[in-house]
Amino acid sequence: MHIEVGIIDPVRIALANAAALGVVASQLPAVVRNPLVVPKALVSAVVFSALMQAWHLPVGPSELHLIGATTIYMLFGFAPAMLGFALGLVLQAFLFEPGDIPHLGVNALSLMVPMIAVHYSFGRRLFDAKLRDRFNLGKVLRIDAVYYAGVSAMVGFWLMISNDAVALTDWAAWVAAYFPVFVVEAFITFTAVSVIKGFRANGLVYRMTEVDRLTFA
Questions:
Q1: Residues in the chain with pLDDT < 50?
Q2: 24 with 113: CB under 8 angstroms?
């Protein structure tokens, strides 16, 4: 989902950075309401960065990565996931990929906007005690599909407004290549949450994860 530096002009990059900062700022009230969002976001950032560094493969106009988005979202919640993406990208850029620094806003929006779509479409139903939408593999696959469709759309958007013409077939090849990745990540999420739920009586797990808010079959 990374966009190579140089294909988006500085004005659009500046606008993307401003928009990304605005999205991050929108999560600050959640920090005020619950200070535990901060350590959860830090853990999310570390998990995200580790997965991003563990495997990445250039394909067409972008790259394939393990993101762990739904795993982070299901375990730590919406605000920690959003903040964790931003912190994780900063961590990755400054420690491993300095060339990504100019595109921090672009890459952050590519991850955060789809997460907003996930949360306000299907995701929050899983955490709402009144709706009692049960956690299962089918729900995880649906949420992952929405998320990766959003990431694909965001990459397409950045390529559409870039300085370099990118063939639609190249973008489509990248989207197709991401399909098995999203399926693998859905199974990772389902397995991780299923394992962690066995420890939800533990005080640390209870405070530091959202597993206790999920309804299991």
A1: none
A2: no
